[in-house]
Fold each of these.
Amino acid sequence: MALAVSTLSALALEPVKISREDKALDLTKIAEIYANQGEAFQVSTAAGTDGIVRRIEVRASSPGHNGDWAVFALANVSDEQLERLIVAPHYRLVNSHVFWPDLGSDRILSITPSEGFALDRVPSNDADVFAITLNPGAVITFVAEITSPQLPQLYLWEPEAYKDTVNAFTLYRGIVLGIAGLLAVFLTNLFVIKGTSMLPATAALAWAVLGYVCVDFGFLEQLFGDNTLDERIWRAGAEVALASGLVIFLFTYLNLSRWHANLAYATLAWVLGLGTLFGVAIYDPSIASGIARLSFGLTAVVGVALIIFLGFRRYDRAILLIPSWLTIIAWLFGGWLAVTGELDNDIVQPALAFGLVLIVLLIGFTVIQHAFAGGAYQQGLFSDLERQSLALTGSGETIWDWDVSRDRVTTIPDIALRLGATPGALHGPARNWLPRLHPDDRDRFRATLDILLAQKKGRLCHDFRVRAEDGQYHWLSIKARPVLAGNGEIARCVGVVQDVTEQKNIVDRLLSDALNDNLTGLPNRQLFLDRLQSILALTGQEEKLLPTVLTIDIDRYKQVNDSLGIAAGDNILIALTRRLRRLLKPQDTLGRLAGDEFGVVLVSESDPKRIADFADAVVKAVSAPINFANQEIILTASIGVASWTDPSISAEGLLNDAELAMYRAKKSGGDRVEPFQPAFRMAVSDRLQLESDLRRAIERKELSMVYQPIVRLNDAEIVGFEALMRWDHPKRGNVPPGEFIPLAENANFIGDLGQFAIERATSDLSGWLAQTGDVPYFVSVNLSSAQLINSALTDDIRRALNRAGCPPERLKLELTETVVMENPEQSRLVLEKIRDSGIGLSLDDFGAGFSSLGYITRFPFDTIKIDQALVRDQSDKRDVLLRSIVSMGVELGMTLVAEGIESEEDAIKLGQMGCHYGQSFHFGPPIGADAVARLLKERFPLTRKG
């Protein structure tokens, strides 16, 4: 050290005055830092007692020093010699920064005073400590050789005060370390006992906190000595472990994979990214520590968002975590103030370390509370009262509690929220409910409660309507029992209240459907007859009351329904309903009696001329054009009129008379009004007799089957037959199918005729096969809608085939589009079962009705029978339509049969188009079973079985 004298006192250091009472002085802001000054550093000293400023030169104690120096001056203003310690801690959390933080290192290599020799170093693991002695009145300048320009803290301590402070902090650190260690061990043991996934995640976080505290308190150096890794590496690794532990805990505790699989992948990527920081910490601890600190803060923010999101969805884990996470946010805020230097205090760093332990403690309590909650329930250890409470909670019922003594009604959960009212609007006195009740229910509700209070027993079962905020009424049902106090009076009434609006609506809808048509809303046949009977009961009391019944049947409605579809038919019925309603007066009744049949009870008119005018008005209303899908539809009606003349006649009888007249009008060609005549009843009697004869026709063997050939168009070879039914009546002779088939359908025994046809056709087919051998021909039998909705149809057909010994592939069943679409879903299921049995399915009369191509793909048909009306059409577009249908069928791999071929030319043309088979009188009329057998013997003489 060299000395020089200078008179430039203005440039001299300002010494820090020290007295005996000063126990600790912060020299951090007083020390002047000189960076990159080289190994030889010259500086002016503080002015001595003589006022002279000297200049000294100090050389570095170690080669390769970076040239960073710190200079400060001390002045002993007391009259005693003072012993002091200069302390520079290796690491200080305060002002260490978030990014590229200062993780600690040796701060001072040596200190040279302006008088005397270099200061002696006092041994210390966590700070650079130097002992100094200041004589009375001495002013000494100290030049410190520092490792870097960053000097976090420089303190001047009185030795005993420093010793007491170190001992106090050592005791505090020991306590914190003990608590952290116990928490880590305790949570680890809990994982062994309980085994839930959240416990190991919590234990891992506890061990990470313990590691961080050990590093922060310098415990590792005391445990392993100075030969351990660089303190900065340990510190960075501890912070990375802490950040990783918090991410793992948050994911595991909230079970984030339950909410979305991508959250699991995101968390895994986050943890793996933090895992790589352990390797980074070895090469650059500051970078690893900065990223870990950023991750810790980001985890806290993400945790807040997740807790809010899941908390609003009533996820109990998220709700239980709120106190612990608030503590984390508070700790994070304090840590941010510390590392940015906003909070500068010696107790900040140990306080934050204890804050981490406190966080783990709170998290441990939360996890334990959740992990062991319901343990008794899982083992079945709960009382009957608890069991009832759990059942009530699980049922989702609303508890209704009326405290009678205080006259306060409470619902849990609040029923007002379901009604859209403000919370608690229905809490309070029972009279508060009255303004919201339906006016018709208020007196009954009040009387029910009064009776319960008066009788002091029984049970409250009451349904009533409550107005919601939107003006709609909700049906509520209360079921409750009174609870008696010691004096025998009712103390409270407790039960449940349910919103039964949906159930009430269903009941009302069922009642309405039972009495009203669900399409038009008109009274159905039952309600129509009931109203007519009520009117007839009044005819004897009022002379002017002469009711007239009109039955209105829409002509050709079935054809319109088949051609335009069911939706169009429904819209037409609705339009007709509106028109007919406009003709009626309030005392008249309009009803829908059947599919396309309406009925009118006309009370407003009794004069025959006025009644006739009304009927004509109905005809005009029905015949007015209806526009649908850019088509103009014109309908007509057959109307029967029956006026009341016989006092003994019933409503059913009067309606039957009107229907008889309507049937006569329909039979006469429709589009007319037919008044009832008594002679019509004789015709009905004949019809009933014919129906009775038809029921016995099977037993009398009056029904038979004839078969019309189906030929291959290429060579006119017979490939099959269509089975047709005939009825030879003993008195009336041959009754055409067009007469007795509808009769069987109306009498609901068409299924019996259909089964007879299948059994007779399979029996005849079996006989032909026995005579001709294995010849490739089949028999087609028509199927009715009544058979198709029969779930036992498939079994009945199989029994008939087995009884006759006939292969199923030789039988085909023919169905029209109308039959299939009466019940599409049921039809599809039945037809699929039939097709799986090996029986063929033909779509009959294709081209006559709606002809939706969806039928072909939706249902398992393998054959299309082209309607004869399309084959016989003489327009120019016939060939185009036929060629399109045939081409489509061939592309779909289906067999095509053309009906109604009238000439050889048409047969050749259809064959050239690709149509496979033909059927008409041109190829042969229907013949009996014996004639078919003879025909087959002639056509196939060499194919008999040997």
Note: Confidence is low (pLDDT under 50) at residues 1-11, 375-382.
Amino acid sequence: MTSAPGRRSSIFTRLLRHGFTDPSAAERLLDSAGPAPLRDDPVLLDALGATADPDLALLGLVRLLEAQDGATARQELLDTLIAAKPLRDRLLGVLGASEALADHLARHPSDWQALVTYEPRDLHPGVQEFERGLADAGDPVTLRVAYRRCLLSIAARDVCGTIEVAQTAAELADLATATLRAALALARADAPEDAALCRLAVIAMGKCGGHELNYVSDVDVIFVGEAAGGADEAKALRAATRLASHMMRICSETTVEGSIWPVDANLRPEGRNGPLVRTLASHLAYYQRWAKTWEFQALLKARPVAGDPELGEEYVAALQPLVWGAAERENFVADVQKMRRRVVENIPATEIDRQLKLGPGGLRDVEFAVQLLQLVHGRADASLRSGTTLDALKALAAGGYVGRTDAAQLDDAYRFLRSMEHRIQLHRLRRTHLVPEDEADLRRLARSLDLRTDPVVTLTREWRRHASVVRRLHEKLFYRPLLDAVAALATGEARLSAEAARERMVALGYADPAAALRHLEALASGVTRKAAIQRTLLPVLLGWFADSADPDAGLLNFRKVSDALGKTPWYLRLLRDEGAAAENLARVLSAGRLAPDLLMRAPEAVALLGDGDGGGLAPRSRASLEQEVLAAVRRADNAVQGVTAARGVRRRELFRTSAADIVGSYGTESQPAEADQGALVDLVGGAVSDLTAATLAGTLRAVVREGWGDSLPTRFAIIGMGRFGGHELGYGSDADVLFVHEPRDGVDEREAAEAANKVVSEMRRLLQVPSSDPPLLIDADLRPEGKSGPPVRTLKSYEAYYRRWSLVWERHALLRAEPVAGDEELGRRFTELIDPLRYPAAGLEEEAAREIRRLKARMESERMPRGADPKLHAKLGPGGLSDVEWTVQLLQLRHGAQEAGLRTTRTREALAAARAAGMISEEDACILDEAWVLATRVRNAVMLVRGRAGDTFPTVPRELGAVGRYLGYGPGHAGDMLDAYRRTARRARGVVEELFYGGS
């Protein structure tokens, strides 16, 4: 039948409406000989439309019909399909979800009848039912066929929702148990003399042992052997080894019917290097003397499944005391945490965002957390000794070891992630834990989970939501009970012992767990609203503190802030209600000394960490800062009060900038760390420079107002130099400046000079008066004649000096000169005065270039601190700030007059202009920019971590770790950070050698 040209057939439209993605192909299939009688059957179309992949389901049905042995068999299938809804739903559900099982049915077309039975006993089969299903298998090939037939029945109940994910996993484990028994029976039948010599027990481990197997997974086992009937032990073990090896091959080897699954015995003592089969005594000796922590963790799931049942039970009974005593081992919790980190680190970067099992927020996070708590608390509580993750989680909640709400959320997330994993594997029966990238695969996966509205988007959103829950909760399972351990609980409620609480704190990286628990007690005890809210917040905060290099400092600082602000209603409301505030606070308090010190001097600045209208960490503009500072000065009664107010604004804004820098470097749960390191450097440099300029403007106004009223007898301007003029100040930078003045009309030059000098002296004094605010040091040593010259000159004096006496280094220094405060017109004229000096029309004389190189070489040799490693000195070392800046500045001196883009005080802007003008290659410019950004970040990190400026990496391990964390390196990777710095600096030095020292 064909439709009119240009019009779609009605069947095409119906197919499209029922979820077919290729209705034309589906229409052709329906027109084929097999399913033609079903073409117009609305029940069939509805049933196909209800499957995960209607196109795949229809194709599988056509193949199954074509594979039937004759017309009678085909008609029987068609009749049953039309008449029996249970079969229709099961069969089409499987065909729409699993291409691999559709292949099996095409090869074994009568196996569809395994889905016809629909009786209560068929709904929840156990090991015995599966053993009956495998009983007729007489060789590895027929065992595979029988296994797939049993698997077909599990998959059918799974995709139809007859059984939920935990029951599916249990049935898959039961089927694996029956299969191992059948395989061992085949091996015994092939070697009866070996079977007579030994007792062999097969112990299931991993997911099979835990009764939570996947559709396709390695089946982890351990073998235990003993001599039978007085046989020689050595001969018996060789016989047992042959039987075990044969059993493994029966399951693992590929035949015409494929394989079942690999049997993996690498969890045995000594792994693949150890004997495949050991006696019970040998197992015990190994675990008592040599076993590592992870091996006891693995034994949590040990379960006898095949072979000699008595020997299997003896094995488990003998090892149980060792398993439940493992938590007493030194560094037990830390070892488990380290193992988890190692698993994540070994995930290929291209896969980590798609990993359902091993990635952050994945299944393994849940399993590790639950197993750790089982091992810690299962020593005294036998109810926790389950090998099944969800059962153990339920028991932990019932015993008070984790919060009930947390356990419920984790249970829900785990079930969703396991359901995703099951359906991904079911499609082709391949062992994978990666979420597919193909749109069609994602659509089928989503529909198989009953996500039908905008399936791909909905699936992605739900997956990320559940993964986020796991990330948030998997370590939090440690934290909340810690609060209960130090808080008053009702009689009869479960609580952690002091020792258990201490172990948990050590696991989280606390160097002084006793002090940390005292802080927790102070924060969480009591019946006040403050204590109640903090009990809610602390489990999350502890996790964020643990993610830093100094959890102890984070918790202590939080206690200090809480003591200062805890009775302030807005503070508790801010942390409770504003999503970003609590996490931002935790990051800031545990990242180092500078930001917490700034905050402690005025704790109300914590309001800046919120995400509401009253907060925000975005830096303010220079204009708005200057407006606030000048307004504060106007309100002050005298210069001291005015400058104190200006310094208070500076302290608050330094905190805002440092907090923004820390949060951007660490990232948050909702916002990843800033990938553009240069953007963070520009943020800090611009914000601190603007803040310094506003502070100087306010101080100048305060001093002038007190001494002279509204007008100084001389015009006065402040010129920023060095990093200040370049908008590149760091947290610990001095303000390099020049002071310039010009007497007003009719004012005596001597009177004007005295006024200008008094202004400079008073500004310096007031900005360094000891107070709770950090001082601002003014450095005017770049002025003409250096320290020997007057601190302030008239514009004419500058002109005369530069015309007659200026040295190369002074012209060089003027490249960074920019007016920052005071009389704008005077500042503009100063700039016009120096432009011909710093951007000479004829370029830089070769002798001057040689002099600059000599100065640079002398500075490298004379200013390098004694004992410092030059390769790790961020300012003066090879490839450091000085190297990059002097190279760029040499280009500015040479070509600034001709190339407008080079006429800037900012290093990165000048470098980009040189690249755009073709003066430096794209590659070399990127190398220099990367090195300059990294060196600047190192200096900022050192100041944030230590609270004082420094140009080299700290030597204290915890401080070095904090610098690494700021730079994006995880725990234990300080060495990688130093290697990366050396590598980056070495590449930059190569470019400097060519452009600065070797260029013409």
Note: Strands lie at 198-204, 219-227, 263-264, 277-278, 303-307, 714-720, 735-743, 778-779, 792-794, 818-822.
Amino acid sequence: MTSTDPALSATRTTCPYCGVGCGVLATPDGKGGATIAGDGEHPANFGRLCSKGSALGETIGLDSRLLHPMIRCKGSLERVAWPDALDHVAHRLKHIIARDGADSVAFYLSGQLLTEDYYVANKLMKGFIGSANVDTNSRLCMASSVAGHRRAFGADTVPGCYEDLDEADLLVLVGSNAAWCHPILYQRMLANKQKRGARVVVIDPRRTDSASEADLFLGLRPGTDAALFCGLLVHLADNGALDKSYIESHTVGLDETLVRARAIAGSLAATALATGLPEGDVAAFFQMFARTERVVTLYSQGVNQSAQGTDKVNAILNCHLATGRIGKVGASPFSLTGQPNAMGGREVGGLANQLAAHMGFTPPDIDRVRRFWKAPRIATHEGLKAVQMFEAIARGEIKALWVMGTNPAVSLPDADVVREALKKLELFIVSENVRENDTVTAGVQVLLPALAWGEKSGTVTNSERRISRQRAFLPAPGEARPDWWIMCEVAKRLGFGSAFDFKSAAEIFREHAALSAFENNGSRDFDIGGLKELSDEAFDAMSPMQWPLRRGELEPQRRFFADGRFYATDHKARFVAPEVPALRTETNAGRPLRLNTGRIRDQWHTMTRSGLSPRLGSHLAEPFVEIHPDDASRFGIIDDSFARVTTDYGQCILKVVVSERQQRGMLFAPIHWSAATSSGARVGALVAPFTDPYSGQPESKSTPVSIAPYEYVFRGFVLSCNEITLPDNVWWARVAVTGGYGYLFADNGDLARWPAWLRNIAGDDLAEYRDFGGGVYRAACFAGERIDTCLFAGPAHDAGDWDVVKTMFAQAALDDAARAMLLSGHSSEGLASTGPIVCACFGVGRATICDAIAGGAATAAEIGAKLKAGTNCGSCVPELKRLIAQAGAVSEKARVAGAAG
């Protein structure tokens, strides 16, 4: 690679994972891949990347890509030309709309889309088809924050910025495992704690890794966040901590809200009772908040994903409004956005209850957008939000659906019902960059190949309102096209050509910017009119910038509301009195526990991208359920065994992790596995479909559930250069490995069936070891000097060393000694396994870390100095500290035993 070859120079782009919006330097390798590094000049991350961002280079291959348009014909998908696919889509949409009306069709979008894609989809559906049935998977992420902002501020405005995390004296994390889900921002918080002495409070039913550095952890009962912040508001009022001047000049509704707050949690004791917290801990938190001017309260899915999520958001906002701690340096409420462009979708109106450019469905806004777009049949009322949209599909009211860049058959609550509903559609279109996922296999009729990250070009907006460029650094593969182009071509065929004659993402962005400024004059928060005349060249070179950036302004506005000017008609903020906190469901004898769902550190959504990385698959390779030791004892559940997890909506069989960090009465299961990556771990199928009445966001954190042990006689794994199908009735989970595919499995069938299964897929060069009496079968077939497929099966903990065999499988050639040792499951050099990966950034395994601890490394910093573990994104540091503590506990136990002997 030479720096003079423009094809191989680094491209500044933006990470496609979470809402932090980290800058990335991507350098193509000339072979279809790229090396990835953090962009030291990007203000979101200053060069740091988390484990997922660091592994992006492992996810951009073409093996699983959809490269050509396809239409279902006589039961199977067949390749067609682009004009035929587009003509078919337009013809079928026209027919259904003419017969059943505009509300019989819907778009379901994704926070992975670029703003320009979102803009075209929203304009087409709301302005020209004439329905507001366009929603997004962001509904599952931050819709409650949007609704809370709009109720309190009169607009969906994020008041603060990332710099506030550096300047705050108190950081309060509510329902946010930022250490795993937003690690770059979490490291900024820890840097503030170390340099300035900022204190950290973590409020969460689970003791997550974010609590490892907390000065105070509040493990409240699920669903009681609003009660805690109602109690805080009462405490602030009763102890002279209100900013009366700010309240009087810039807000309304405090008196009514205080009356409600007193009814919910009118004292320290009442708050403790309502939340299940020790009264002393409640008092400590209230005193910290009351006595600290610079407070940032950060909240995420633990707050949002609730049937009372909007009330929880407003309970938090009430406390910041009451103290005037909003929009000031180091003082603001802050919603941590889950997706890379959920904010961009909100800007363009990509939610069913928004119109466009932060305008709603009021008559003046409808008229304004209609005139700007010259829209012939603009939507005049809100559309169906995500969960309600798929319920309408199940009832047969929505006949046509276009899904873009998301996997609702896995991610939505009550996901089995969603999957069945999709099969009822007359017209089911999916724009995707992969050939197969659960949504595609649910009966898609038209499959359209979209560009992926690294190929597409446009903008995204992060959690602090910062617009950044995603830039292409790889050529478009096959016939893949930008999402905006696909929609424009369909719009032209529907007869709307003049309004969708866009030639580039830059042209769409200019129109988007112009709409934001149209008849604005400061009446709306979102205004990037200063960019509406941006040239193509300036768009290509655009640096990250926050909004608003109004026409004529040289610098964007960094914060909102310190001046007390809000976006309601009277320019005042609203205190909002929450309803009495109550979960929508009750536990009972048949469902005695509650299920909490969420993300794990190294995976993303349904693993369409992150699941391609061997590095990311090495940390937590199997779907699991986490349970407190007391509950495990009560229900006969054993660590590292299996359990059947059942709700009124579905069931899964998951590996068991027994952990004191889990609250009694609660289970936790990650959301990532699908039918494509596991046999029975679609956790979305367990989740109740109840939603918040204001935001439409589902309650994903507290479904009543039961758990029972599930036993398997055999466990094992398969490694293969090719994707394979395991025998029926086998529990399995697929994981990416270097050189191919890995399958971890468990089985109650006859061990003797495995040799016959393997011979059906193996070549002639096959080596076997059989001990059926001992319950062991191991075999490997070779292609030349490397392993093509190998199978290890045995009793629960005697199937062979997965990590050792995986390392041997990755080698391009095995010598005779390695071949001879392979079926033993041990390295020919006698090397010990490095164990499961703890530090994904540098590929450092647990056994290697434990060896360093045994060798004298007594702190995470010392481990980092020896092994680099924990020195990049830092998300593994809490686990390093736990390993140090465990080693210390073992040493102390041995010392005591020795002294007693």
Note: Residues 837 and 845 are 4 Å apart (CA to CA).
